[in-house]
Records
---
Amino acid sequence: MSHPDPKDEIVTHLPALRAFALSLTRNRATADDMMQDTVLKAWTNIEKFQPGTNMRAWLFTILRNNYYTSRRKLNREVADIDNAFSDTLSVKPDHDGRLQMMDFKVAFDQLADEHREALILVGGSGFSYEDAAKMCSVATGTMKSRVNRARAKLTELLSLEDDAVLELTDAATMAVVGSPRIPS
Amino acid sequence: MSSVNDPKKQRIEKYIDENLKKVFSDLEDDQMPDQIIDLLSVLRAQDERLKQEK
């Protein structure tokens, strides 16, 4: 039985890889450079990918390693941000929902790299804590702790402990996430 | 201190995760940059050439 070419599979993960790059770098030009490096590395090292394992996790790992290596090389503690993340606001069905989503993105932008990364891997992309931990070369407990701290920080930034705010955000979220094109 | 089963905490987590999924889905819809499309064309052409040389 012949196996499909794993290079064909790389292409199917590119939209998710780009979403991860944008959320990690928050800069369109940097995200595109990281994407280009990742695709080139994955393509030319495809024999290192083990068929049957999670290709998306493999690609995300290459991208995040590239990103942190380049940050270290440039000796940059603070990323060069152009709001690529919070600017990506598609048309939403409801004014309040749109404002709430913008608030959410602005708050998300303020999280530390490792917290943003943990939340996007586990909450946004649906990786298990175990897979996300492997991708970031940390223990599963560390990943759980990062996700919890990131959620706590967002809760604080968005004042979600306030019952009135939570009522409003629930209604606004339903207006946005209830949109039919959003996968459940 | 709120427990793991605290309904309010669960509601907040649900709100955050739903928004994260929405944000990630929006980012996935972002147009693929030309430089990536061009790179894929170059890599495929290169593979094709190598295959023919074998």
---
Amino acid sequence: MEIVEKKNKNIGYKPILDGIPNWPVYQLSKNRKEFLEEVTEKSIARIKELRPTRKQLIDELEATVYREQNRMKRNRWRVDPRDENAFWAEIKKDLVALNSKSENEAPDEILRKITHRYANEIAGSFKASSYKVARAVIKFGFRRLLNGARVKKFGAIFRSKYTLRDKIHIVGKAKMIRNLARRGTVVMVPTHFSNLDSVLIGWVIHSLGLPAFLYGAGLNLFNIKIIAYFMNSLGAYKVDRRKKNLPYLETLKMYSNIALQKGAHSLFFPGGTRSRSGAIETRLRFGLLSTSVEAQRNLYLEKPNPGEEVRKIFVIPVTLNYHFVLEAPDLIEDYLHVKGRDRYFPEQDNYGSMQLLKFLFKFFTKGSNISVSIGPGLDVLGNYVDNEGNSLDAQGRIIDTRDYFISNGKVSVDLQREDEYTRMLGNKIAKEYHRINRAFASHLVAFVAFEMWMKQFPKLDLFSILRLPEEDLEIEYAAFKETFKRVRKEIYRLKKENKINYATHFKGKADPVIQHGLDNVGTFHLKRPLLMNKKGNIITHDLTVLYYYHNRLTGYDLEKFI
Amino acid sequence: MTLRNLSEKPVGVIGAGNFGSAIANILSLQTKVLLYARDPNVVAHIQQHRENRGHIFNEQVTATNDMAYMAKECDVLFPIVPAAHFREMMKILSPYLRPYHIMIHGTKGFDIILPEGKTLETMKVLSREHVKTMSEVIKEESVVVRVGCLAGPNLSKELAQRQPSATVVASPFQEVIQIGKKLLRNDRFQVYGNNDLTGVEIAGVLKNIIAIASGALSGLGYGENAKGLLISRGAVEMIYLGRALGGNIKAFLGLAGIGDLVTTCNSPMSRNFTVGYRLAKGETLTQILGDMHEVAEGVNTIRIVKKCADFYKVRAPITDRLYKVLFEGMTVPEALGHLMRYPLDVDIDFIQDEANLDIRSPFNVT
């Protein structure tokens, strides 16, 4: 018997803003030049604030050049511009020349060159025409694939029985995010598991009827041409994780900060990178997140009188759930390599456009649903907001967010305070991720099986367990089922306490749910992480990847129910 | 930058106990102070006699019984009420608080929330889900986030005599530390800052346990060797417990840890010390608590910490023995005998541990 997800009821949403010219993103890219000038100037001011003396600033710039040249030598990507070497050689020359000059000359010009280059590199360009094309391609392409694959009749490829909406389930506070996007600026912060996330979330935003978001996407994505095309047309800006130097980080943050102040809905992955372990992020990166706090403070600073209408910034956590993550084997190898230091040696493998297309085809031809849970809106301090955008305290009383930035009766700038606020916001987001997480049967079977094997070898550490020969591992179905039911019961209990959520296929008789889980967990990997042998017992072909899918349900203290 | 403005608005002190009165007095050297007392008679008494529990107030101090008024007048508040009443007080105050308020508390105790129908006795173990520090209570019950605490060797009687002393203001917010320093510092009172709020709070709470033990040793008539042994092993125990409960080592080595520990363990004036002393003289807990005027936080702390140690599997022999003495009828000499036979491997082993902590950190390698 096949278990089917309940059909999604929401038929689709009307756009909240009619024409593309009204979209904040469009406005930004229309005035691209002025915008980038502003980013450059303000970044320079900020960097000089952080490195107040001439010497400190020169030291910082020298460190920047050194790191950039090092990066070019060690880690060059396809997307890197060709003139990089020349540019940094030039900067180096300028710095040497400056050192021999008098003490009075400040390195401002050099700093301007660098930040300006960075600002241009980061900035995306949103073009209405290519946005429309990309959108149509995604919709059309996906729908054709879907129908051709599911309905096995000639000509099916031209029918429209299934839409993306049947594949991708959007649950949670969809109406709220639409409301909030009308009243203020929305910052969407999803969990990050796969390179597919970026495209997926773009579709989600569109299908919720929201205008295009300003998009922070890892530069590495732009190495894959097909994704680069979509990203560019969706107006994504580029985040280069290789560059850790101060001028780059400050320019990046300033870009996001000013865009938010101008009311551009934004999206970035606060985990910073795909979750290597497969677990939901528990610690977030604070860089880009801090820009939402800072932008909100600036908006209050501009209108200093209490009671004045100020555009609020709303943070919306989103948890994505997959049965299958294409890159899982690589990600988990990465994770184990770092975690185990030299106790674990990974092999390298990467994915290009072809693999991705193959995956997409598999994804549409076989049943592997994705679920997107939209969390409740938060203000920049992590307080829940109501549908009107009012911040609420734990007792449901309305709070004025402005008060958080007030010291001695006035809105004030205190970066250390805001760092702390960012940390609070980050912790709240991580908590929400876990709360709105929608457990799948495939996650649970992986969790139960792996934990049962862990329990079977209490004396071995994780790495020794992962080295066990897979042939030796087998769990009696009856014992597996019993444990599965016990853990699932605990998940039901947690759901009552509002600490987790689960998919509709999760409930019901245990046997079909387990079957559903086994059929779906990491189903397209070369070696299946979990399956049933002829005797009907549970076995694995790839324990490491099983560990990856298992991690999805860590952090709920479910281990003690094994 | 803030000093002038601050002096225009009064600073609030909630709780007119011994320590609360002492802090109100120190604050009154810099600024106007509103001192809240729950009992209207105490308010009237202070207003009339300018005195409370031996603390003489200057004209900067005004007593009040009105929480709403106090929250409206003051941006900075120092809640100093016993841990057992802290949450209740916060619930009453909460509707008047705004996110711009700054709270620096001076309460050294834990708050516990138990599942319905359970009592501390029927709970087998306690975890951090049930045990909260005062700053956590403030954040749970109100919208105030800029929170800090006061801790350190601050015996109220010595403060009242203007003897030299120092305190730690701990908060993750530099702003809070700066304001604390500006308000409290004077030529007899030094103020240090620490950003590990939880660690400092926990250090301040745990030292009460060792203080009781110290009183007990003293009550048995033992001298300085025994005390040195107790203080150093006590500090190690505090560090282990503290780390399990979410603090880091540094807080325990500072004023709030070692500083406060040495003071309380040497002070017959302290309430916790007195409890231990009289226990050793053969009195029972009920007798002792029957004629004490103020709360000895240490007694409750032992009840709570013993169960936490069980949950987190931390070795805490001193706490464990004291628990037996207080609640299970063991005598002080028996407990001491047990501790002297306790197998110990190494003197100090936590510093190395800390360096290894990273490896075990679970998620998100980036």
